[in-house]
Design goal:
The protein is an alpha/beta fold. The chain has twelve helices and ten strands. It has helices at 29-41, 64-73, 102-116, 135-147, 161-174, 192-195, 198-205, 239-244, 248-264, 268-277, 292-298, 308-317, and strands spanning 3-5, 12-14, 17-19, 46-48, 82-87, 121-126, 151-157, 179-183, 208-209, 286-288. An eight-stranded parallel sheet has the order 9-8-7-6-5-4-3-10, with helices on one face. A two-stranded antiparallel ribbon has the order 1-2. Helix 1 (29-41) links the parallel strand 3 and strand 4. Helix 2 (64-73) packs across helix 3.
């Protein structure tokens, strides 16, 4: 496994990040442990979860993924795992059960630490913006967690470029911890949202980028074909897959990925990830897995070196997405 720094920080992370959204949902505890063990043994030590994953427990929403990761974490040296989680979604009833207020963040981080069975979180991310809370309040609350040693770095997810830049400005003016990482939706088949403005902001400001859904909800693994468009049962309600399987351009792009994968003798998923990893702004794509086999299929992606003409062909085949 290859490693790189998280943006402008000195923290080293693996070039792939294991997404834990499936844990407690489409992967039970035993399977989740097996996936985590396989990842760790391969050197993939960067794990991303969120408090809202994946179902209702203890009368609250979510928490199952963090609980599973926390149990597994007791079997490994804590210092060797880079653990990321998120805050924002509804976790308990009432008006303060969600959001990015100081009130919610201070309680939510304690709950996450308890479920994760650890005394610190390496990367704590705001899951999405909260228009009801001033940025000054959110960033000051996050900084207090850093100063208390409960959080080491902070990041954000699903932020537009203007809000990310404003957040950086507020952090600079207030002299508090800034967002050092962005988690955007980005893949060969979902490019414009990130590439339009966010990519240059992150590169200019030294912000790490850990994209989610880099395989377009599994479409870029080749599991769907023009002849077999039956959605995966766990994603049947997903709007992304429903759109892609009705779009001939998506299958044309998939044909290009398949051709290049054939030339390299690797699974299609590795080509889609190698395309991302070839971009200097990308730090570590987040890969999810429901089985050990699915994880093993992508572990070799950082070792795939795409030629310049192959990257150009992929860019041209996915232009407009």
């Amino acid at each position: 496994m290859q490693y790189t720094t998280l943006g402008r920080t000195g923290l080293k992370v693996s070039r792939l990040c294991l997404g834990a959204m499936t844990f407690g949902w489409s992967a039970d505890e035993a399977t989740s442990f097996a996936i985590l063990d396989t990842a760790f043994d391969a050197g993939l030590t960067f794990i991303d979860t969120a408090d809202v994953y994946s179902r209702w427990i203890e009368g609250n929403r979510g928490g199952e993924s963090e609980t599973i990761v926390g149990k597994w974490l007791q079997t490994k040296p804590r210092r060797e795992v880079i653990l990321a989680t998120k805050v924002r979604g509804r976790m308990w009833p009432g008006p303060n059960g969600e959001g990015l207020s100081r009130h919610h963040i201070v309680q939510a981080v304690e709950d996450s630490l308890r479920r994760l069975q650890t005394d610190y979180i390496d990367l704590y991310q705001t899951h999405s913006p909260d228009a009801d809370t001033p940025l000054e309040e959110t960033l000051a609350a996050l900084d207090s967690l850093v100063q208390a040693g409960k959080v080491r770095y902070v990041g954000c997810s699903n932020y537009p470029a203007w809000l990310l830049m404003k957040s950086l400005w507020v952090s600079d003016v207030q002299g508090v911890s800034r967002y050092d990482c962005l988690q955007p939706h980005y893949s060969l088949l979902h490019r414009a949202e990130f590439e339009r403005e966010l990519a240059v902001v992150c590169q200019d400001q030294g912000i790490a980028v850990i994209p989610y859904s880099p395989l377009a909800a599994g479409f870029l693994t080749g599991k769907y074909t023009r002849e077999n468009k039956q959605p995966d049962s766990t994603r049947s309600g997903g709007g992304l897959i429903q759109r892609l399987i009705q779009d001939d351009r998506a299958f044309d792009a998939l044909d290009m990925v398949r051709a290049i994968a054939g030339d390299h003798g690797v699974p299609l998923a590795q080509i889609a990830l190698a395309w991302q990893l070839a971009q200097p702004v990308i730090t570590s794509p987040i890969i999810g897995a429901r089985t050990v086999a699915q994880l093993e299929e992508v572990l070799g992606a950082p070792d795939v070196q795409l030629a310049a003409d192959e990257i150009t062909r992929l860019n041209e085949a996915t232009a407009g997405f």
